[in-house]
Design brief:
The protein is α/β, with parallel strands linked by helices. Helices cover about 50% and strands about 10% of the residues. Strand 12, helix 13 and strand 13 form a beta-alpha-beta unit.
């Protein structure tokens, strides 16, 4: 039977918010706050954190002070509260965006007892006049939203957050509720210690978001692949995260050029533009927001269907927080990340010049995100393990790429035992990188000074490489044989299970890890089940090309070269625009020769019921073709290629390559003025006639035919002339 307090809380939920039931542990959390106890809430995005302080604030006497890091977040929540309660005085925010008149009104409403919730930026809370004002009014409790900002181990550390405890003490001795959507055990401890609330009742919900699909792809042709993905998810809301403002602008522009309703969002835009773009996204006037990590904090859009990371985030907490903005309504959410180790190297460079302790924390956080990106174990299991939660990968139900397409397994009993022994031999005082190098037998100043090179395990695993042992270390961690020491930035420690395994090893299946350096991974595969060409269609296209070449009396390669035909069998273009974006085609060739090829492919697609990836059409931004425009303009002015090259800091060879690309895409170029200086009329005629009768445009074949009479560059120039006149 429900107690009176429980009935009061439930009645208030119905009265103020119109809900009959609480989500998860909301009711227990609110009861704890109402009882005047310190409360620590760790609840994933979409779990209903704000209710945990909004409802008790309405029920208790006085004003609840909510510390929040973002102006956009405050505005959203204040608007929502005013709408719910039907009064503008019920909630206010206090931050740098307010005028003096507005601040005066806020303070008057609080003094008159009308305001139940006051949202404050930490910077505003440190101002003496605000501390003095709040000391003189009744405070019900302090709430700290996004509490991970307190911890240097958190993904969004803000130094001003670490001063909150002393400010609270100066204002009033009332309970604190700290809330975060991401907190590893180390972040949780750091927050509690800093706020002097180790006595807090902790409410920790599961971090498992069952409706999210996690996927990592190699960072290859990333713009093209993002456009393809978005067009496969037409009219669905999505967020694309980039690390830099410049990249945000670039991606937003390339999406717009390709017919996708996208807007940029970053701190470099003025506040009115940011607010406008945010509102357009919320009101579904824009489908996609391209943003730096500043976007999304507190944005209450429940139907975001995909979150794409163009760049890997700086930590697994950031990743979890940002992916958590997908599928908050319980519907489908696709979390796609493009990964390249080069991005990690860039992030490591940003750490230089920072204090040593900060560098150590930064490197450890980067190590965790690399491990996540490269691992072959269930991604959901890996994330939950990071947040201190055990998870059976069988429950993933193929909701991550690694479970959907499992990697090869092999017996790893000996390797795991060897690694765990090495951790033990090194007295559990080293990080994973050092242990891997120790097993490989790599000498360093440290191995010599500690005499580690004399130990039994030194070099015991040199038959494998670093990536192999690094994968073993990751899988040992996820399976609970090892743990990481917090205070020493990632030192490996043996668990009870790990020690047991050393003494009595049992069968242990290791997964073959992803290798993003060798190019073995492919970002997209053909719907037919592989990124190979469609052999049947390829033969049909070859026959068509041959027939047209006879009709036009030109060599087949003049019409379309073989790489172009191969790309057609993967992409299945059925419009001129799509054909123009096939490798080596372009608008000119598509117009001149394309129609019969388009008709053949369209008919083939229909007859064979082929599901096309229709979104490979990626139009480039004009600024990327600046060099091509420069070359064409200067060739029109009959400028020597040497001068064109030097004006752009290029070699003549590089400029000729660019010209070959321009001509290959169907644009006519006249370089007769330049060729005349290289070859007389007779030689030109000789080479031209060769290409007219040749079976292929191979330079090697041409060089052999003329037995070295002409230099390779001369043959290239004549091939450009020939292709420009005959094909374009």
């Amino acid at each position: 039977m429900e107690t009176k307090d429980e009935l009061d809380i439930k009645g208030s939920l119905k009265k103020y918010f119109g809900f009959n039931e609480f989500k998860g542990e909301q009711e227990a959390i609110i009861a704890n706050v109402m009882a005047g106890k310190n409360t620590f809430v760790i609840m994933p995005t979409g779990g209903g954190k704000s209710m945990c302080y909004q409802l008790p604030a309405l029920m208790l006497g006085g004003t609840a002070v909510v510390v929040s890091p973002l102006i956009a977040l405050m505005k959203n929540q204040v608007d929502a509260m005013r709408h719910t309660y039907g009064s503008d005085s019920i909630a206010h925010f206090l931050n740098s965006s307010l005028t003096k008149t507005e601040i005066k009104r806020v303070k008057e409403d609080i003094t008159d007892g009308k305001t139940k919730l006051l949202y404050v930026a930490p910077e505003s809370l440190t101002k003496k006049e605000n501390i003095a004002f709040l000391t003189g009014v009744g405070i019900s409790f302090f709430a700290i939203d996004e509490a991970h900002c307190i911890s240097e181990w958190g993904h969004d550390f803000r130094p001003e957050y670490r001063r909150l405890r002393e400010i609270f003490e100066a204002i009033s001795d009332v309970p604190i509720i700290a809330l975060t959507a991401t907190a590893t055990p180390k972040v949780q401890h750091d927050i509690q210690k800093n706020l002097h609330m180790l006595d807090a009742t902790i409410f920790k919900m599961s971090f498992n978001r069952e409706n999210l699909y996690y996927e990592v792809r190699p960072k290859e042709d990333v713009e093209k692949n993002i456009i393809r993905f978005i067009k496969e998810n037409k009219l669905k809301s999505g967020i694309i995260y980039c690390l830099s403002r410049k990249k945000v602008e670039e991606i937003a522009e390339v999406l717009q050029i390709n017919g996708i309703n996208a807007l940029p969002y970053h701190a470099g835009l003025d506040s009115s533009a940011r607010a406008r773009h945010q509102d357009m996204f919320l009101m579904e006037e824009a489908d996609v927001i391209v943003a730096t990590i500043a976007f999304g904090m507190g944005i209450d859009k429940p139907d975001v269907r995909f979150v794409i990371h163009h760049d890997i985030p700086k930590s697994l907490e950031s990743y979890y927080q940002e992916t958590g903005r997908a599928g908050r309504d319980g519907g489908q959410g696709h979390c796609l990340t493009f990964y390249s180790y080069k991005d990690i190297e860039k992030l490591e460079k940003f750490l230089h010049g920072k204090p040593i302790a900060e560098q150590e924390v930064g490197r450890q956080l980067l190590h965790e995100i690399v491990s996540y990106a490269e691992t072959s174990v269930c991604r959901r299991k890996y994330i939950l393990h990071y947040f201190g939660e055990r998870f059976d990968e069988n429950r993933c139900s193929e909701m991550c790429d690694n479970c959907k397409n499992p990697r090869e397994k092999f017996e790893g009993k000996d390797a795991v035992q060897l690694f765990l022994k090495a951790v033990d031999e090194l007295k559990e005082k080293q990080k994973a990188k050092y242990v891997c190098n120790y097993i490989l037998g790599k000498e360093s100043q440290e191995t010599k000074s500690y005499r580690h090179d004399t130990l039994e395990g030194f070099g015991a695993g040199k038959d494998q490489d670093y990536n192999f042992w690094n994968a073993v270390s990751r899988q040992c961690l996820v399976h609970g044989f090892l743990s990481k020491e917090i205070e020493s930035y990632g030192t490996l420690k043996l668990t009870k299970e790990g020690r047991k395994f050393i003494n009595t090893p049992t069968s242990f299946m290791l997964l073959k890890e992803h290798d993003y350096s060798s190019g073995e991974e492919h970002a997209f595969i053909n719907p037919k089940g592989g990124n190979t060409t469609d052999d049947k269609l390829y033969q049909m296209l070859l026959d068509l090309r041959k027939r047209i070449s006879k009709e036009k009396n030109v060599p087949p390669f003049v019409i379309f070269q073989e790489p172009s035909l191969q790309d057609m069998t993967i992409q299945y273009p059925i419009t001129s625009e799509e054909l123009a974006n096939i490798v080596g085609v372009g608008i000119g060739k598509a117009k001149r020769y394309g129609q019969p090829f388009i008709e053949l492919i369209a008919s083939y697609v229909k007859e064979n019921d082929i599901e096309r990836a229709q979104d490979f059409v990626v139009k480039s931004m004009v600024n990327k073709s600046g060099l091509k425009v420069h070359i064409i303009q200067n060739i029109d002015r009959k400028m020597p290629l040497e001068d064109i090259a030097s004006s752009k800091g290029k070699s003549v060879d590089e400029i000729i390559c660019e010209i070959e690309g321009i001509v290959g895409s169907g644009t006519k170029i006249d370089i007769d003025y330049y060729i005349k200086d290289q070859l007389d009329d007779e030689d030109q005629e000789d080479i031209y006639e060769y290409f007219l009768e040749a079976e292929s445009d191979s330079l090697e074949d041409a060089y052999e035919e003329f037995e070295g009479d002409y230099e390779e560059e001369q043959l290239r120039l004549m091939r450009i002339k020939f292709m420009s006149e005959m094909a374009n």
